Each structure stands twice: as structure tokens, then as C-alpha cells.
Amino acid sequence: xxxxxxxxxxxxxxxxxxxxxxxxxxxxxxxxxxxxxxxxxxxxxxxxxxxxxxxxxxxxxxxxxxxxxxxxxxxxxxxxxxxxxxxxxxxxxxxxxxxxxxxxxxxxxxxxxxxxxxxxxxxxxxxxxxxxxxxxxxxxxxxxxxxxxxxxxxxxxxxxxxxxxxxxxxxxxxxxxxxxxxxxxxxxxxxxxxxxxxxxxxxxxxxxxxxxxxxxxxxxxxxxxxxxxxxxxxxxxxxxxxxxxxxxxxxxxxxxxxxxxxxxxxxxxxxxxxxxxxxxxxxxxxxxxxxx
Length: 292
Ligand code: EPU
What we know:
Helix content is about 25%, strand content about 25%. By secondary structure, it is of the alpha+beta class. The strands form seven sheets. A five-stranded antiparallel beta sheet has the order 6-7-15-11-12. Uridine-diphosphate-2(N-acetylglucosaminyl) butyric acid (EPU) binds near residues 251 and 288.
């Protein structure tokens, strides 16, 4: 019997994942599932559990490299109305995990609410951003999060609030497989003031990062007090090419995928960078991107 019988409209078997990622690379998932409602999501989670099928949540695929061999198990994407909606209540923002960060930033500018500026230009979903505490020079998403709602492997839904909920640099103590929504606390400001910061962040990124290329943003975490990009640059690796994968000339912590690039090329280049930076500068770089 098909383990997802009755759910055929939301389950695709042997589904290529490349089109769901910014890199556009990698193989297929055994199951690609887009639940419409929380109830349906719970059914999916329980069926996976009963049948020992592993679960992965896919956001906008902007910080992700999918292996050429593909992914065993189920990949779930929360992109229906129920998971993507958001609502501002005074200075509080209630937002679904599938919502688009850039849309939130723009809406908060219109409303003159401050707190999301640091997320400008991050092409991610709220769920993905919370999971890895996405951010930049001005801060991260964790600092404006009050609580999140998650679903565990048994399909139970519960809320996790600060101080039990902890964020650190590109890290959050969230172990439940599914983030459903978040409550964020913003502060009152002026639309012009918020817009000014948002514009500054945009211009900074446009000038320093290869934004219109196939990439996954920064590949490595910054070692404490240092920039991984600057270290890779110092090791002389800008422009290094392996197959179709290239260390960006604009920002060395980006690997862009050029024509004919495979996921394996990117992985091998990541290893090469780690080895060379360790050899030249004695520093171990840890990946920031998710590799499936
Ligand atoms: N630098 C170089 N060469 C390079 C890249 C950077 O010398 O090739 C130097 C810059 O000139 C600057 C310093 O390194 O003096 C820091 O660079 P940058 O301001 O670009 O910041 P970063 O630490 O490299 C971080 C985040 C980015 C985020 C930017 C801006 C990490 C790993 N990276 O980069 O996040 O956009 O700040 O806020 O934390 C991402 O997470 O995917 C990402 C791109």
C-alpha cells in the first residue's frame, strides 16, 4: 500500500529538487510534499513516522545545496496560504513559517516598524531563517523573535518561548522537525527611518556580494571575530574554479554555479577551500549552508 494514500494531490514521488533551490543543482527527493493545512501536515508527519521515512523541511532553498544523489525520505514545503500568511497587531508580528522575509521587511517599512532591517535582501522563508538564525551585520532574526510554534515527530504542536528558546550566531536550539509560525516583537519608528536603513543594507550587499548569480549566499560561518570571506580572499582563492563551481571574485565566501556545474563540484570546492585556508592560515572553516 502506498504510504501516502489519500494524499496524492499533495505528494510528488521522485521529485527533482534543483528547481526548488537557488543553486538549481542536485537530485530528486523520494517524496516532495506540499500540505495545504496543519491537519494535513500532521497526517504527513505521522505517516512518515509510522513508515520510518525521514523528514526534511524546505524553505526557499536559498541556503541549501542538494547532493547529486538526491535525498532519501520526504521533503516538505509549507507554501500554502495557511503557512504563508502574516498579520501585524500593533508592534507584534504573527507570521507563518512559509512567509517571505523580503515581503515582511517591506511591510514593516510601510508601517514604520523597526526590527527587521537586518533581514533586508535575505531571500528566505521565516521558517528557514529562524532555524539558522539568519542575519547580517546589523543583527539577526532571533533578536526580534518572541516565540515560535513547532510540530514534533509525533505531530504534537507546541510553543517555545524565550528564554527557553535560544539564538546564537547562525544557530537556534530548535530540534522539532517543523517550525509552523513565529511571533515577533518590533518597535515603533518612522517609515523614512526604517527605509533609510533598509536601503543602506541593500546597497551594501549589492556592492559587496554577487547577488544575480546562482549561489547559496555565504558558504562558511564566520569564525569568531573574523570574516570567512576575508580569510578565503587572503588565502588567494578568489576565482578558483572546480568544474562549474567558482569562488566569487566579488565576495570570496560565495561559490557561484556556472554552466555545467554539479553539486559535487560545489562540494569538492568547499573541501578545497577548507584545506587551503587551514594550510595557509591555520583556521578551520565550518559550512553555514545546509547540505542534503
Ligand atoms: N572581505 C574581503 N574579501 C572578500 C569578502 C569580504 O576582504 O572576498 C572583507 C570585507 O572587505 C570586509 C569584511 O571582509 O572588510 C567583512 O565582509 P562583509 O561585510 O561582506 O561581511 P561578511 O562577514 O563576509 C556577513 C554575513 C553575510 C551578510 C554580510 C552583510 C556571514 C557568514 N556572512 O558577511 O551573510 O550578508 O555580513 O551583512 O555571517 C549569508 O549568511 O549567507 C550572508 C551572505
